[in-house]
Design brief:
Layout: E1 4-11, H1 21-34, E2 39-47, H2 49-60, E3 68-72, E4 86-94, H3 95-105, H4 109-124, H5 132-152
Parallel strand pairs: 1-2, 2-4
Antiparallel strand pairs: 3-4
Length: 153
């Protein structure tokens, strides 16, 4: 695991029984360690469809809810700050959307949330899925990291 992770976690009150901040931090640490990140800072927000829809409209021009949004603090390749922390940005997850997706896929909610968090962190680290080869590379990293998350739980 990275030697240092500063993760500001905000879980909207209706969702605090579904997911915990320590668990989200553990998933984030595993994802970052798998990518060789030794020290990082990021924010994780668990919220509802309406909040995600508003963010998606304001920042991506899409007036609809989605499952996860990533807001990077980096332009291009990410470099550590003078204090050694890689300041990544924010991952925002809609828990109601995650719940619907988990139910549709027949898997536990936490498995879906872990997938969305890993996906969002990979975006913050520069991964994308616009092209087929990029998508395959990103999906392979997700599978590898999620296998590690499953092994920890």
């Amino acid at each position: 695991m990275p030697s240092r992770l500063r993760a500001d976690v905000r879980i909207d009150p209706p969702f605090r029984q579904e997911v915990s901040a320590p668990w989200l931090r553990r998933v984030a640490r595993l994802a970052l360690a798998a990518e060789g990140v030794r020290a990082a800072e990021l924010s994780i927000v668990i919220t509802d469809d309406e909040a995600v829809r508003q963010l998606n409209r304001a920042y991506a021009g899409e007036d609809e809810a989605t499952d996860v949004l990533s807001f990077s603090l980096q332009e291009g390749e990410a470099f550590p700050s003078p204090d050694g922390l890689l300041r990544l940005g924010e991952v925002v997850i809609s828990l109601p959307t995650a719940q619907r997706q988990a139910e549709a896929a027949g898997r536990p909610l936490l498995e879906e949330v872990a997938h969305l968090l890993v996906h969002g962190i990979l975006h913050l680290l520069g991964y994308d899925h616009a092209l087929p080869q990029e998508e395959e590379r990103m999906r392979e990293r997700e599978r590898t990291i999620l296998a590690q998350v499953s092994g920890e739980n």
